[in-house]
Amino acid sequence: MPKIKYYYDTKTCKYEQVRTTKRGIVVNFLAFLLVTLLISSGLVYVYQTNFNSIKESRLLAENSQLSMKYSYLKKEMIHAESFINTLQIHDDSIYRVILDTDPVPTTAREAGIGGAERYSSLKSEELIEEDLIINTYKRLDKITHKLGIQRNSYDELLVIEKEKEKMWAARPAIQPINNKELIRIASGFKKNRFHPILGIARPHYGIDFTASKGTPIYATGDGVVEKKRFSSSFGNVVYLNHGYGYTTVYAHMSRFNVKKGQKVKRGDCIGYVGNTGLSRASHLHYEIHVNNTPINPIDFFHRDLSNDEYEKLIELSENDDTILDMH
Q: Which residue has the higher pLDDT, 146 or 129?
């Protein structure tokens, strides 16, 4: 049974039974709802003030991750830019200097990427961090562009290196006979040399190496036998065409070891020392021509010698006392 409530009536001085009306019930109910609403609103306000919603928490977590990833990406871009700059410096200041070729123009390396419309699709999306995103794209495009230029440069250097390798192999670079003791040079390169037999001054466009008959003569660079013949002055003589404007001449041979048109490598034996033609004793007369102009051979094989050895060769080549040929 429901509990009956009473109240003390001061007028009648009696306890009267509490009687609940419909209006009272409604008022009490509304009062209860109001209090409940106020308490709930207070709790919601306190919660919202001090705590994030699940959605907000997820967004904050995602934002934090994105920030960390962008920081890492930024560091990687800085590292990539530094690495590319190092490649460019090595390319222009080392590799291209060694290969004797021009550096890549700065205008080509720093050229712009596309035009104003390149990033129009990003701008149309009305991104919140539009400037940050577009600038990052531009930075990445510039890195990609520089890498492409550097790749093309290396491809070019590879072609140049292969051609230079052929040229270096063809360039006369060693002495044509075994001369380790540096005692074989009898007479050197002279534009005017007084000939004691002929009694006149005439040029001597080569170096004479003394050697006994039959001493091997070596090709001083890769080339092709252009001529192999007997000359009244040079005797048995071989002309090697090395390409790139280089020609070498080997005169007064006793016999040949090559045929016309034969390809030879540096160090191949092409013949043997003799005393043919206008020669007074067994020796090799050796010449180098660059674009049909005689050049002092010492300037080509001195790289295989020390400074002291090179100075000794120069001293020997300036000796005019021993004249072994008539030209």
A: 146
Distance between first and last Cα of the chain:
150
Compute the distance between CA of residue 172 and CA of residue 170 in angstroms, rounded to an integer. Answer: 6
Task: Please state the pTM of the whole predicted model.
Answer: 0.63
Residue 97 backbone dihedrals phi, psi, to 5 degrees: -70, -45
Closest CA to 237 of 229, 245, 246: 229
Burial pattern 142-163, b for ≥16 Cβ within 10 A else e, equals bbebbeebbeebeeebeeeeee
Helix (H) and strand (E) counts in the chain: 8, 14
Q: Measured between alpha carbons, how far is residue 49 from residues 36, 43, 46, 60, 266 in Å?
A: 20, 10, 5, 16, 88
State the DSSP H helix or E strand holding residue 313, giving kind and residue range, or none if neither: helix 307-317
- Does pLDDT of 250 surpass 70? yes
Each residue of 270-290: pLDDT tens digit?
Answer: 999 999 998 888 999 999 999
> By CB neighbour count within 10 A (0-12 exposed, 13-18 middle, 19+ buried), where does 103 fall?
middle
Average pLDDT score over residue span 134-158: 89
Q: Write down the pLDDT at residue 234.
A: 92
Query: Residue 273 forms beta bridges with which residues?
Result: 253
CA nearest neighbour of 94 among 103, 107, 85: 103
